[in-house]
Amino acid sequence: MIDLDGTVYKGTERIPSAEAFIEKLQAQNIPFLFVTNNATKTAAEVRENLLNNFRIDVTEDHIYTSGMAALDYLIEKDMGKRVIVIGEDSLKTQVTQSGFEIVDEKPDFVLQALDREVTYKELEAACLAIQAGAGFIATNPDTNLPTEKGFVPGAGAITAFLKACTQREPIIIGKPYSVIMQGALHRMELDKADVLMVGDNYNTDILAGVHYGMDTLMVLTGFSQIADIIDKEDEEQPTYIVETLAEWEV
């Protein structure tokens, strides 16, 4: 399992060592799945971005987003069909294609992701719905996203807003939580003992693997650095650490 932003690329900035790493996996027919907390794109859009901007040619079956994992979870748990979505157009498209109805009031649940055009009115509606008893589902806890400009607000920053105004804890789908890991393993049809979690963010990618009982590889091309893990307990350390994916032999 491989994270994307900060691991395979950084915003719009290429990471050539990561591109070469993916080519090696493909050449050796080693199964892999991009597991990303980013819920702002469909699998098709992620594939197009990888191909056009980072010279990585994969299929949609190589991609699993927290938005996809959230919908898998909601379908499995049968939490109702009416939903308020705090999220961008790609997520809303996936929601309706999965058989849910997007509403403005009286939803069965609120599905919240990163939304770079969210309004106060939309946040107000979500807060009121959650206070009235609607389910509260957050795609991921990422408070910041690495970009070529620096670290910008992520979906977790919006989650913090909703938590503050509702005093409710959401069900969080993405890394480091288990829902996305379970969904990803199901898609790969592999046992977790045979899978390595590769990522740049200790608090999401690495802890996702650690808490799920998987080996982990932390790459220092994105969010976390050695100083971030020095004081962590032995059982919460990455299994392996590399400066770039060029150091990892496959």
Number of helices: 8
Largest sheet: 5 strands, parallel
How big a fraction of the residues is strand? 15-25%
Helical residues, percent:
25-40%
Alpha carbon gap, first and last residue: 14 Å
Order of helices and strands: EEHEHEHEHEEHEEEHEHEHEE
The helix-and-strand class reads alpha/beta
Question: Radius of gyration in whole Å, from Cα?
Answer: 18 Å
Indicate the multimeric state.
single chain
- Average pLDDT reading: 94
- Apparent shape: globular
By DSSP, the count of extended strands is 14
Order of strands, widest sheet = 6-5-7-8-11
Ranges with pLDDT <50 over ≥5 residues?
Answer: none
Walk me through the structure.
There is one protein chain. With 250 residues, the protein is an alpha/beta fold. It has eight helices and 14 strands. The chain has a five-stranded parallel sheet, sandwiched between helices. Strand 12, helix 8 (202-212) and strand 13 form a beta-alpha-beta unit. It is globular, with a radius of gyration of 18 Å. It starts with 8 loop residues before the first strand and ends in an 8-residue tail after the last strand.
In short:
The protein is an alpha/beta fold and 250 residues long. The chain has helices at residues 16-27, 43-54, 66-77, 89-97, 120-131, 155-166, 178-188, 202-212, and strands spanning 9-10, 13-14, 34-36, 63-65, 82-86, 101-102, 109-112, 135-138, 144-147, 150-153, 171-172, 196-199, 215-219, 240-242.
Helices, strands, pairings?
Blueprint: E1 9-10, E2 13-14, H1 16-27, E3 34-36, H2 43-54, E4 63-65, H3 66-77, E5 82-86, H4 89-97, E6 101-102, E7 109-112, H5 120-131, E8 135-138, E9 144-147, E10 150-153, H6 155-166, E11 171-172, H7 178-188, E12 196-199, H8 202-212, E13 215-219, E14 240-242
